[in-house]
Amino acid sequence: MLAPQLKFDIEKQTGLMRAGVIHTPHGDIQTPAFVGAATRATVKALTHAQMRELGSQAILANTYHLILAPGPALIAQAGGLAAFTGWNGPTFTDSGGFQMLSLTDAKIDHDGVTFKSHINGDKIRMNPEISMQAQWQIGADIHMAFDQAIDSTDKNLVRQAMERTHNWLPRNIREHQHLAAAAQAAGQPAQFLYAVVQGGLFEDLRRQSAELMAAQPVDGFGIGSLYTTETEATANIIKLTNEILPQDKPRHLLGMGSEPRDLFIGAQYGCDTFDCVAPTRQARNGALYTPNGRVNIKNARFRHQFTPVDPDCDCYLCQYFTAAYLHHLFKVDEITGKTLASIHNERFVVRTTDRIRASILNDSFEDYKSAFLAQYYAN
RNA sequence: GCUGGGAUAGCGAAGUGGUCAAACGCAUCAGACUGUAAAUCUGCCGGCUUCGGCCUUCGUAGGUUCGACUCCUACUCCCAGCA
Question: What top-level class would CATH report for the domain A7-276?
Answer without folding.
Answer: alpha beta
